[in-house]
Specification:
The complex is a heterodimer of chains A (247) and B (296).
Chain A lengths: L1 E9 L4 E10 L4 E5 L6 H8 L7 E6 L2 E2 L5 H7 L1 E4 L11 H8 L7 H14 L2 H4 L10 H13 L5 E5 L7 H16 L3 E5 L3 H7 L2 E6 L2 E7 H6 L1 H6 L16
Parallel strand pairs in A: 3-8, 3-9, 6-7, 7-8
Antiparallel strand pairs in A: 1-2, 1-4, 4-5, 9-10
Helix pairs in contact in A: 3-6
Chain B lengths: L6 H29 L6 H18 L4 H24 L7 H23 L15 E3 L2 E3 L1 H23 L1 H11 L1 H5 L5 H23 L9 H16 L4 H18 L8 H15 L16
Antiparallel strand pairs in B: 1-2
Helix pairs in contact in B: 1-5, 1-8, 1-9, 1-10, 2-3, 2-4, 2-8, 2-9, 3-8, 5-6, 5-8, 6-8, 9-10, 9-11, 10-11
Classes of the chains: A alpha/beta (247), B mainly alpha (296).
Chain lengths: 247, 296
């Protein structure tokens, strides 16, 4: 469904991403893991056309979408739930959802149908329909950001750290929603710091570090890989005998 | 006659000019909200509204409403062209460069207007009659009533446009969170483009309203633009309600000051207010989404 070939993105003297290749198949959930500053958000913003590629190609459903404008990419069926939610605080919850359907604004009946599909999954969006989005709690704002992206009827949804700032119980709730969306045929590409949670619903994952893809594999293989432990701090290893504790 | 007997009279003329300042300020805020840009050509839109209407009315002999309508359309077009030729190519430049670019556009527009339409001051006839109306013992020019009513209607129209239509909400969305909007396919560049059109239209409208009261000439946009900018800062930079409030407050204070100080100092009042507000409350009366109350 999505194919990235040798993608390089540069916006300073050094490339932020270097010859990244990856593939996501229809119906999959794929995790993108890596420490802070690895280039995960950069990759997602490039996929959405916010950042431009220096080299390499991005194919979506066989079509070259490299360096298209964001609105063209959204209309091809790639939704994006950005890090930090980026909801519109002064608009009502419903208006936020309507903004999500902006490119389909003339298809009133389809918008209504899509709302009816989203409300059972994210009931809070119906309960708080007329409230200003800025007054929602963090978890509710995350639900709104997800619902808003869903209003564009995406085929592939990019999720940038959806668990950030959420209480553990809410994280589970959000990931349960992702699983349900996936069961309905949506393909998901998740950037996460919550490795275990993210890999628990993913089939496969990629590991990014310093702008390079250093590992890919099935979720279970990744979980046991040494690269993952090292790149994320390696807290599962027992200290060696001659290693002294820092404290 | 003591000074105090002038007060109601000055108040009424203050409200009239205040309405104009409010519209100019609103033009500034519309563009600032969409793009963070301070468009110093805003005053030229006002000037062009008056001058182009004059051209179609007196030179082409078109009926007044038609001349005004065409002038507004032309100024909106100029706003669009300014975005496409000046602002859009510089969209990745820093705010300071954009600021200078709009200043350049302002000089270009006023000089071009001087070349095309002449540098002599121009005036438009009032919309209806010149005989002052007596309202509560104050004599009011009919044009002042026109200014106030037209401003109110325009404000209601703009309010409905931005709060009741999908396009208005999209502009709001794009101004509060450009990245969030871009990711939904709401193009930020398109919204800034539209903001320039709206701003230019509002400016031209203000110019047509005010020209029968004051003269206009190719160079009168600069001062009007600065006054509108002061009004926007006074009310709260970046807020529509602040722009409107700031406009009226500035107009009224400026006008009332005539009772106490020589008329030549009238413009200094506006700049004095700007200095005071920047020093004591930089975020303006209603507060600004772009500024906190810290001084720096």
């Amino acid at each position: 469904m999505l194919k990235i070939k040798k993608l390089t993105v540069q916006y300073g003297p050094l490339p932020a991403l270097y010859e990244i290749s990856l593939e996501i198949k229809q119906g999959e959930i794929v995790s993108l893991l890596g420490p802070n500053g690895a280039g995960k958000t950069t990759l997602l913003l490039t996929l959405s056309g916010i950042l431009k590629t220096t080299e390499g190609r991005i194919l979506f459903e066989g079509e070259d979408i490299t360096n298209l404008n964001p609105h063209q990419i959204v209309s091809k069926g790639i939704g994006h739930v950005p890090q930090g939610r980026h909801i519109f605080p002064t608009l009502s919850v419903t208006d936020n959802l309507m903004m999500g359907a902006y490119l389909h604004r003339n298809e009133k009946r389809e918008i209504k149908k899509q709302l009816e599909r989203i409300y059972p999954l994210l009931p809070v969006l119906k309960e708080r329909a007329h409230q200003r989005a800025g007054t929602l709690s963090g978890g509710e704002q995350q639900m709104l950001s997800i619902g808003r992206a869903m209003m564009g009827r995406p085929k592939l949804l990019l999720l940038d750290e959806p668990s950030l700032g959420l209480a553990p119980r809410l994280m589970d709730e959000v990931f349960a929603i992702f699983r349900k969306l996936n069961e309905r045929g949506l393909t998901l590409f998740i950037v996460e710091q919550e490795i275990h949670l993210s890999l628990s619903i993913s089939g496969r994952g990629y590991l990014l570090r310093n702008g390079r893809m250093i590992k890919e594999g099935s979720a279970s293989a990744l979980l046991e890989s040494r690269e993952l432990m090292i790149s994320l701090g390696g807290d599962d290893r027992q200290p060696e005998k001659d290693e002294t504790s820092l404290s | 006659m003591s000074t105090w007997t002038y007060i109601p009279q000055l108040l009424s003329s203050g409200i009239t000019i205040g309405a104009i300042y409010a519209l100019v300020a609103l033009g500034f805020v519309t563009i600032a909200r969409a793009s963070q840009i301070i468009n110093f050509a805003q005053g030229e839109f006002v000037m062009l509204g008056g001058v182009i209407t004059f051209f179609f009315l007196k030179v082409m002999n078109l009926p007044y409403p038609l001349a005004a309508f065409i002038a507004i359309l032309i100024v909106i077009l100029i706003g669009f062209v300014m975005h496409l030729s000046v602002v859009y190519p510089l969209r990745k430049a820093s705010i300071v460069i954009l600021l200078m670019a709009t200043l350049g556009a302002s000089i270009f527009l006023s000089s071009t207007s001087g070349l095309l339409f002449g540098t002599l001051p121009k005036t438009l006839p009032p919309f209806s009659g010149e005989r002052p109306l007596q309202l509560l013992g104050v004599s009011v020019l009919p044009q002042s009533v026109w200014v106030l009513i037209s401003t109110l209607i325009l404000l209601i129209f703009l309010y409905l446009l931005s709060h009741r239509t999908l396009l208005g909400k999209a502009m709001e969305a794009s101004s509060t969170d450009p990245l969030g909007a871009d990711l939904l396919g709401i193009s930020r560049n398109l919204m800034v483009f539209l903001a320039f059109g709206v701003s230019a239209g509002v400016g031209a409208f203000a110019g047509i309203l005010i020209t029968p009261v004051f003269f206009t000439s190719y160079s009168s946009g600069t001062l009007l633009g600065l006054k509108g900018f002061i009004a926007a800062v006074l009310g709260g930079w970046g807020k529509n309600s602040g722009a409107i409030l700031g406009g009226f407050v500035l107009g009224i204070v400026e006008s009332l000051s005539l009772a106490f100080i020589p008329a030549g100092y009238k413009d200094a009042i506006a700049f004095g207010i700007l200095l005071l507000i920047l020093h004591f409350r930089p975020k303006g009366i209603l507060g600004s989404p772009f500024m906190d109350s810290r001084r720096w």
